[in-house]
UniProtKB/TrEMBL annotation:
GO terms for molecular function: beta-glucosidase activity. Pfam families: Glyco_hydro_1. It comes from Micromonospora tulbaghiae. One of its GO terms (cellular component) is cytosol. Its EC number is 3.2.1.21. The active site is at 172 (proton donor), 367 (nucleophile). This is Beta-glucosidase. It catalyses: Hydrolysis of terminal, non-reducing beta-D-glucosyl residues with release of beta-D-glucose. It is an enzyme of class 3 (hydrolase). Substrate binds at residues 26, 127, 171, 303, 414, 421-422. Belongs to the glycosyl hydrolase 1 family. Gene3D superfamilies: Glycosidases (3.20.20.80).
Amino acid sequence: SSVAGADPIDTLPPSFRWGVATSSYQIEGAVAEDGRTPSIWDTFCRVPGAVHNGDHGDVACDHYHRMPQDVALIADLGLDTYRFSVAWPRVQPGGRGPANVAGLAFYDRLVDELLGRDVEPWVTLYHWDLPQELEDAGGWPNRDTAYRFADYAELVFAALGDRVRTWTTLNEPWCSAMLGYAYGDHAPGRRNLGDGIAAAHHLLLGHGLATRRLREAARSPIELGLTLNLSTADPETGSAADRDAARAADGLANRLYLDPVLRGEYPQDVVADLAAEGVRIPVEEGDLDVIATPIDVLGVNYYFGQLHSGVDEQGRDRDDDGKPVRRVVRRDLPRTAMDWEIVPESFTDLLVRLHRDYPGTPMVITENGAAFDDKPDADGFVNDDDRVGYLTEHLRAVARARAAGADVRGYFAWSLLDNFEWAYGYDKRFGIVRVDYDTQRRTPKRSALWYRDTVRRVRGQR
Ligand code: PNW
């Protein structure tokens, strides 16, 4: 930092937004109540071996029944924003047709509860819980799903748009498309690169269509955007092979989403890489104009950075099929319980790079956080110095990026609560508040108290 002893975090401005994030399937439970129909995650959790320990979201954090108490937790931490997602199969069962009034009523109450406690709601429309009926009709690889998503977005907006100012269409389309359809680690568990790429395109198309619909429907100023999970892809050495491996990884993970949304074009090098695999992005005329509909805010989720090599352990840059070697190199760095390398410097690099390559789009960190092997004491208190350290270093990284010009306007910790961590089930805990899954008792961890105090200090409230 520039001034000896000064913490870069203290340079964050009074207008900076401070929040926490969650998502519907990870916390709500109540999967068969008030007319909700199954999502692809309800189905996937029943596939033997798909989710650690056979865990599922049937009860999760029981947030559906404990919502006012959870909102009180947020308010008591002094945070100004809560980012949550709406469960599509709750508010439009089956993914088509009229709104389910009973399902919408939950989000209606949630929004009122938040506003009553001076916490601003930030709605994510899609955090991975696709109605199973739409998957049965082809899922995201089917172009029609994009249009279904736009209808759904409009329906939620009609119910909450009078009180919710900020809207995120998609959370992490890379995860939905690649983990869900290409690699099979997430619902619906397909393993086909062509399906993954078609899903990516139709997710982006859905984002663009929904963005247009919401803009047309808005009666007062709204903020619209999408959230991408972005990471850094650095070459292990300066060799041409390593640099090409890093380029390809950055292309498939980052630029395939950033470029169409913020520049109106797919990156040609990624298009060429995909063609070499026999895969074509199913773009139709006019799609890129829709996808590039201007957004007001880019949500950035950051967890880790990676190092890439273009040669195998024997030093060969081609595999037996003659394809270029592309390999992630594990570094000797501290890791989280997810085995993700802790690299706060890469967070600064990422934000500065986004500012340089995609200028003019304000950013908010819509997720950042870490799972650690929490050890509660007899009272359920978790002294999570490791998580405090992670959050401190990553907030400093954000402050440094801002000092270098990146227009970052807020930071949301992932997550408010320990919750259903997808394929890892309840085994991995990301919360700043501990959840005892036997009693559903919530206990703020040391990190929650640290976050509360940090926000107060930066705002000059103490
Ligand atoms: C994000 N990866 O998921 C999601 O938005 C959250 O729902 C999730 O709980 C959180 O991060 C922690 O995992 C990711 O493999 C899942 O790179 C996987 C990856 C990144 C983000």
